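Lecture notes, structural biology module. Today: joint structure prediction for complexes of two components.
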Amino acid sequence: MENFEFFNPTKIVFGKGEIQKLESLIPYERVLLLYGQGSIKKNGVYDHVKSVLKDKILFEVSGVQPNPTLEKAQEAIDLIRQEKIQFILAIGGGSVIDSAKFIALGVHYRGEAWDILTNRELMLTQSTPLGSILTLPATGSEMNCYFVISKGTDKLANGSPLVFPQFSILDPSLSFTLDQRQVGNGVVDAFVHVMEQYLTFPANAPLQDRMAEAILLTLIEEGPKSYMTNDYNSRANHMWSATAALCGFIGVGVPQDWTTHGIGHELTALFGIDHGRTLAIVLPSLMWVMRTEKKEKIKQYGDRIWNMKVESDDDVKIVIKKTEEFFHSLGVPTKLKDYGISIEVVAQVTDRLKKRGFAPMGEREAVTLKKVEEILLGAIE
Amino acid sequence: MENFEFFNPTKIVFGKGEIQKLESLIPYERVLLLYGQGSIKKNGVYDHVKSVLKDKILFEVSGVQPNPTLEKAQEAIDLIRQEKIQFILAIGGGSVIDSAKFIALGVHYRGEAWDILTNRELMLTQSTPLGSILTLPATGSEMNCYFVISKGTDKLANGSPLVFPQFSILDPSLSFTLDQRQVGNGVVDAFVHVMEQYLTFPANAPLQDRMAEAILLTLIEEGPKSYMTNDYNSRANHMWSATAALCGFIGVGVPQDWTTHGIGHELTALFGIDHGRTLAIVLPSLMWVMRTEKKEKIKQYGDRIWNMKVESDDDVKIVIKKTEEFFHSLGVPTKLKDYGISIEVVAQVTDRLKKRGFAPMGEREAVTLKKVEEILLGAIE
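The predicted structure, tokenised, for the full assembly:
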């Protein structure tokens, strides 16, 4: 096992009706409600929050979009400074929570906020405290310190221990009004978060492996039920799995990949494909192209997740097919051609990765630009 | 899944050599070193800590024993008050860390410190910050807010969110000088911590179940190697499993038992049997006596942990036997007669539990005093 540090101070308040605890969770008077495009007004969450927080002074910034933008965040940064707002309450999914984290840092940074994503040398020492009410189980942002923000067609990620949410309220029933498509995407997103931390090479860390497998098996079992129905328990298990997938616990002391996300982010930025859907496109092809480097873990994944022995390349194909069929069962396609995208994608994505200096990627930096080409070619149809 | 809250702000610093980070982890000047009976002087940890903390003003309280006492804790409370000590560094296993937590609260409580264990109505609002260097993988105290303290033959537990260690340094190699007996006990302790949170009844929480099983399987695989050798990776996996077992993550939203601990604490208090060893005595007999109430989870435990179908009482006997054999492989006996204890134990323990009002116990309060009698009778030989 590699040496590691683990720290995650977010308080999780999980279950139906827990919004009632909101007031005691926010020991501040001036609170910004940050949310998306109005779904919380339709499903009653907005009114509920306002009534529970009736004794606070509330401000609002709405209209945070999927792939949240610098511009919207800047609007909130300006308002927080102007109104001396003390706390940010993000209500929504990963986009809103990611925005809240970036805003929390941006308020106290005197340069251009975008620097926070482009300059890894910045020493940030202060943030506005934040909390979240999660309405979409997917990204895990509710219990970690990472965020992804877009500016034009640039989509970049960063993190800071200063922006762990102080609390996150996870009420599975708040997600019952989601589009089915978002639920399916959310299962895939969580699944691939686990795979990024799991499908690398053995590192003498059997507990982390088994905990990762615990999440994969639960998502395979509960994800399709969560996708097809509004059964509370299935959604609760989907939601808690998505949080567990990226709260850091399964990734301690082990190598991590994150190539699927690296390529996926470019597909979203270039073609507007939903984040979870880009992962479902990239992962199967990556598993095939990197099958030699990932041999031992693919074998273990086949054995423990799909109950099959993986000995040959044909077996690897079967394991990949099972993974794709799982994504399909969630209504998520796995090929670029499903989005009308063809060979032109290869040069576009590799050019961008090259420009950013992102390649080589992966647990052993073995995913060169050449390999990215192969992965994209394999993902076309 | 039941509604739940999860909060655990302890920073884990894991791996060989990480004591080097100690100074930056303690932003205080006046520090109490709290430790046990001198093993840290023999194995070099004491000198190492003193050299890393050479710029601090250090105080010491040593001689904390297994089943740590009120008297020793009071000595530290008095010293902290007198010397205005700002931080407690616990160096040792669960006994030392448990003491540090109790001391941290006791310093700021103006009544008799023992009240903290006997009066659940106390509103404690302040504590002295603490951290730990773990030298014995077993109790999980390094990453939770619970403590067990003894006074005479009373052994009582409590907890407070005020006493999570700010950090815990887990360097597996610091445990290489342990007696083999302590290593074996530690594996059993961690295993039973998981069983207390797992072997109850199904609660629609498949992720928690699988994460519990992940720890059980890892302890079965790595525990005996950790017991027999000083292999770094085996000890590291044992250590991280023991921490994971009681950091709260596997127990969220599910029923819990804790009867084995309830009875075990009395066996330690009455007969001085090591804590982990009492658990190995109680659990197998409890599994048999409560086999109807725990039927579905015993079946799942048999299936997923021991790879066998549990259909009949004879199958339950086999599962229990496998569990006992695992304990034996760690040098830990599973019967009271191994300690020269016979029938007299039944009245002694039940009298004490009755006096404390501890029964009925268990996930459905189904472990009455009558059941405790049966469990003890079954554990004699």
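Point to remember: The two ends of chain B are 38 Å apart (CA to CA).
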